[in-house]
């Protein structure tokens, strides 16, 4: 492993208290933030206080449907990914009326709402129980919703679980870790799923992250999409596996696809290779179909990606993602955990407490100054090409985005001193949004003067960077 990042200068937190599926988010703001496991009241407040003002385009919220409740397992985060019914009442995050209020609050702040939609399966385990809204269930019986005939019973591997990911039939007809696999090829199941998604659309939800999309044939998702009322942005979870028959490209006809290779490849460059390699950074999936991220709730509990525990290096990787031209960026917002199953900060009965950023285990990476301010950078440079690339052949890089922005990243162990950088920015004084906040023509941090020929001079500390953009011009 290369050096661990220990100098966090400039990377500190900001301290802020017949439907159609769109192929990419519409509007000038497309950055998505995943507020993982936040309750509805906290999401609504964050939209008005932070997400809207900082320029985030949409918030991805955790699954809102009724789910299993597992006190014996300590109310793990993954209980939310085991649906019991499609009621929008949860003892964990709030009531239907609180969900509606959240959507309205986010829209008032100019922020769209995308729901993490679990439609591939229902619950695991044979014993059953009572869901978060009081509904009784067993593994293949959900009164009023689904019965045994509405599930796949693949008849393989003893317990019907997927064993061979090289077998398309198993992946899309057997059970993902014992979760009752819905027969999404049937008209009835498609209708019930569409009714759930249409209920959310009627409330004002703008789109969906389709969980476990790889485990449903693309044509099944297309059939469900055709039953939606109005327009919805779709992005699908299809994890690429080398040598596996199911690939992300199969799903682009339905909408965008989460590009899981991106975070691992970005981490590899930051951790073991050279930032100079980022000059041509991209993935096989077409840029206008890819939703990219450094990490998400699953990958941060695995290995091979950068997470909030990488502190400054993580912030720099997100800065690159938000400044680069590939894909639609999705920012992660996490909480601290000591075991991979641990749920969010909660009461003794499993109710998620209101989020208090930077305390009580809430990490809130989306509010870190570098990440939050680079959302504004991303919005300012959207639609421009990469220009004026420079690197030192190793771990210092710089590049512009046309005449709208310029980014410098120095992941070396020593400072870049006395260096002049050439940009296409118009002459003027610009706020460095890595280290300061821009508002009403002033900057709380350092500024840099770009001369009439596009040059500016800067010293950039080790493990640090700077970012200038046209919407943060002081004079």
Question: Would you give an account of this structure?
Answer:
With 475 residues, this protein is of the alpha/beta class. It has two domains: 32-381, Glycosidases (TIM Barrel, Alpha-Beta Barrel); 386-472, Immunoglobulin-like, CATH 2.60.40.1180. It has eight helices and 21 strands. The protein has helices at 40-54, 96-108, 168-173, 187-203, 218-225, 260-272, 312-323, 369-381, and strands spanning 20-22, 32-35, 58-61, 112-117, 129-130, 136-137, 207-210, 231-236, 256-258, 290-292, 328-333, 386-391, 396-401, 405-410, 416-422, 428-431, 438-439, 442-443, 447-450, 455-460, 464-469. The strands form six sheets. The chain has an eight-stranded parallel β-barrel with strand order 2-3-4-7-8-9-10-11, surrounded by five helices. A four-stranded antiparallel beta sheet has the order 12-13-14-21, with helices on one face. The protein has a two-stranded antiparallel sheet with strand order 5-6. Helix 1 (40-54) runs parallel beside helix 2 (96-108), helix 4 (187-203) crosses helix 5 (218-225) and helix 7 runs parallel beside helix 8. Mean pLDDT is 94; it is low at 1-21. Its EC number is 3.2.1.1. One of its GO terms (molecular function) is alpha-amylase activity. Belongs to the glycosyl hydrolase 13 family. It is an enzyme of class 3 (hydrolase). Residues 387-473 form the Alpha-amylase C-terminal domain.
């Amino acid at each position: 492993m290369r050096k661990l990042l220990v100098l966090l200068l400039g990377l500190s937190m900001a301290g802020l208290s017949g439907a159609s599926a769109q192929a990419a988010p519409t509007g000038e703001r497309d950055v998505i933030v995943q507020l993982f496991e936040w309750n509805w009241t906290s999401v609504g407040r964050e939209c008005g206080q932070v997400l809207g003002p900082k320029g985030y385009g949409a918030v991805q919220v955790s699954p809102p449907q009724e789910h299993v409740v597992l006190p014996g397992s300590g109310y793990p985060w993954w209980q939310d990914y085991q649906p019991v019914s499609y009621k929008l009442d949860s003892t964990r995050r709030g009531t239907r009326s609180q969900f509606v209020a959240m959507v309205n609050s986010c829209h008032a702040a100019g922020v769209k709402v995308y729901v993490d939609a679990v439609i591939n399966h229902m619950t695991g385990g044979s014993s059953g129980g009572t869901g978060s809204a009081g509904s009784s269930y067993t593994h293949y019986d959900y009164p009023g919703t689904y019965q045994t005939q509405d599930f796949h019973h693949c008849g393989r591997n003893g317990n019907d679980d997927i064993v061979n990911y090289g077998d398309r039939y198993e992946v899309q007809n057997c059970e993902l870790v014992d979760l009752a696999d819905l027969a999404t090829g049937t008209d009835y199941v498609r209708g019930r799923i569409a009714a759930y998604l249409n209920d959310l659309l009627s409330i004002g939800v703008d789109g969906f992250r389709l969980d476990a999309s790889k485990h449903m044939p693309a044509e099944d998702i297309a059939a469900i999409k055709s039953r939606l009322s109005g327009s919805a942005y779709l992005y699908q979870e299809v994890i690429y596996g080398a040598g596996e028959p199911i690939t992300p490209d199969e799903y682009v006809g339905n909408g965008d696809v989460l590009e899981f290779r991106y975070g691992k490849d970005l981490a590899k460059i930051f951790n073991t290779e050279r930032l100079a390699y980022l000059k041509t950074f991209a993935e096989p999936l077409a840029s206008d179909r890819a939703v990219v991220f450094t990490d998400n709730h699953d990958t941060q509990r695995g290995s091979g990606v950068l997470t909030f525990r990488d502190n400054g290096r993580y912030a720099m990787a997100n800065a690159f993602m938000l400044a680069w031209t590939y894909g639609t960026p999705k920012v992660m917002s996490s909480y601290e955990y000591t075991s991979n199953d641990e749920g969010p900060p909660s009461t003794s009965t499993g109710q998620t407490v209101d989020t208090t950023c930077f305390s009580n285990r809430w990490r809130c990476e989306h509010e870190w100054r570098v990440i939050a301010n680079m959302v504004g950078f991303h919005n300012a440079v959207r639609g421009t090409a990469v220009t004026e690339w420079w690197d030192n052949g190793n771990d210092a890089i710089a590049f512009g985005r046309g005449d709208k922005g310029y980014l410098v990243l120095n992941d070396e162990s020593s400072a870049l001193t006395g260096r002049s950088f050439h940009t296409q920015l118009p002459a003027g004084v610009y706020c460095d949004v890595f280290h300061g906040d821009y508002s009403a023509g002033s900057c709380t941090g350092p500024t840099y003067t770009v001369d009439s020929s596009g040059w500016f001079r800067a010293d950039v500390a080790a493990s640090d960077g700077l970012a200038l953009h046209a919407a943060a011009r002081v004079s």
